[in-house]
């Protein structure tokens, strides 16, 4: 493995993901030279470093002494993982949109190809404390998208994230989890079975090396990667201060599509989603076809109109239907009254009444003809 790759593996352990100062150092001198900058504390001459930047360099220098990239790479190799770096065939070029906040490298686990999978991908994220409605919506939308060849990207968290991953897997589709910890660390532990299945069939991704534990900051930082890898982010449920809204903010910054699923107006878990829907540019989503239309190719991925249920009375020809409409919703009427209401002659009404009775729409009563119970039921 070349020195540049080893240096990038080191940097994923030394610094927090997506640090702007470190990325600028890498841009100016490369990953190997960035390690030397950290070791000596001397930044490139044409890169001004603030007092806070100098503090970060000191912090990285102290941490550098404890890092063993060869050990990290060996552990990764043992569980069948891999490290990908900018310029590799599997590196998604959409990450370059993050500029100074792009990852230094990515640790992967699973057979999926990250770059190929992200060509047609949608992020589905939302509340950890999701409602049954939100879980069902996330699972169904993910399954429908996966069934049509779209990769579902999420964060592996409880609630909406896990439902989205499971929906995609249920449809034998592709799904990618972006971790805030090492790809060998099942967090949350209750999703361990889900992560094992994803490692077997799909893909787990992290900016941190194997064994890295999650922290609160990294959960927010990884949202930028979720947004950058996908064509658009769909917020299924989000509370007023949900991390999913941070993903939507990054998606907007990166010029990606922002979508949201409406929920009950009384639901706390949909407050954030409804806030998004009031903002210009957010697309309201109720089905997978609308997602594909929003993020797909213009003129190719248009959503078909929703199917309107076809009721038995819709199949009746015009005159027969007009006679049926003349039968009152309550009570009954004789043939003469029905003929007047329908605007047809009595012989025609009598013929149509027999047809409607045979079809189960109407029945005889002491006062004439009335709707059957089935025909009176609301449609």
How does this model look, in words?
With 379 residues, the protein is α/β, with parallel strands linked by helices. The protein has 3 domains: 3-67; 94-295, Rossmann fold (3-Layer(aba) Sandwich); 312-376, Arc Repressor Mutant, subunit A (Orthogonal Bundle). Helix content is 45%, strand content 12%. The chain contains 17 helices and 11 strands. The protein has helices at residues 3-14, 20-40, 51-64, 69-78, 114-118, 132-147, 160-170, 192-201, 216-221, 223-229, 244-253, 271-277, 288-295, 318-326, 335-342, 346-358, 373-376, and strands spanning 81-84, 106-109, 121-125, 151-154, 175-179, 203-206, 232-235, 257-260, 283-284, 362-365, 368-371. The chain has a 9-stranded mixed β-sheet, sandwiched between helices. Strand 3 (121-125), helix 6 (132-147) and strand 4 form a beta-alpha-beta unit. The longest helix has 21 residues, at 20-40. 45% of the residues are buried. The model has no long low-confidence stretch (mean pLDDT 91).
């Amino acid at each position: 493995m070349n020195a540049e790759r080893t240096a990038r593996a080191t940097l994923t352990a030394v610094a927090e993901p997506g640090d702007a100062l470190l990325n600028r150092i890498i841009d100016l001198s490369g990953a190997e030279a960035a390690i030397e900058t950290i070791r000596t504390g001397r930044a490139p001459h044409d890169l001004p470093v603030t007092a806070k930047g100098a503090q970060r360099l000191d912090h990285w220098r102290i941490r550098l002494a404890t890092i063993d990239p060869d050990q990290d790479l060996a552990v990764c190799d043992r569980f069948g993982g891999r490290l990908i770096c900018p310029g590799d065939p599997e590196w998604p070029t959409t990450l370059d949109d993050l500029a100074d906040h792009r990852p230094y490298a990515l640790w992967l686990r699973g057979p999926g190809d990250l770059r190929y999978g992200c060509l047609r991908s949608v992020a589905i994220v939302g509340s950890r404390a999701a409602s049954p409605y939100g879980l069902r919506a996330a699972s169904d939308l993910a399954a429908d998208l996966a069934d049509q060849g779209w990769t579902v990207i999420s964060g592996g968290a409880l609630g909406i994230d896990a439902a989205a991953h499971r929906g995609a897997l249920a449809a034998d589709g592709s799904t990618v989890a972006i971790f805030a910890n090492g790809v060998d660390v099942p967090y949350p532990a209750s999703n361990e079975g889900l992560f094992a299945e994803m490692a077997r069939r799909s893909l787990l991704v992290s900016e941190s090396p194997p064994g890295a534990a999650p922290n609160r900051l990294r959960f927010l930082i990884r949202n930028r990667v979720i947004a950058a890898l996908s064509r658009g982010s769909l917020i299924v449920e989000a509370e007023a201060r949900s991390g999913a809204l941070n993903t939507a903010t990054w998606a907007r910054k990166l010029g990606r599509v922002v979508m949201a699923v409406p929920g009950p107006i009384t639901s706390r878990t949909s407050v954030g989603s409804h806030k998004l829907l009031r903002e210009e540019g957010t697309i309201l989503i109720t089905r997978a076809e609308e997602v594909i239309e929003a993020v797909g190719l213009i003129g190719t991925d248009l959503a078909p109109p929703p199917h309107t249920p076809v009721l038995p009375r819709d199949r009746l020809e015009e005159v027969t239907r007009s006679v049926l409409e003349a039968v009152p919703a309550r009570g009954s009427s004789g043939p003469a009254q029905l003929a007047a209401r329908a605007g047809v002659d009595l012989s025609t009404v009598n013929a149509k009444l027999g047809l409607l009775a045979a079809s189960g729409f109407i029945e005889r009563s002491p006062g004439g003809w009335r709707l059957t119970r089935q025909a009176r039921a609301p449609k």
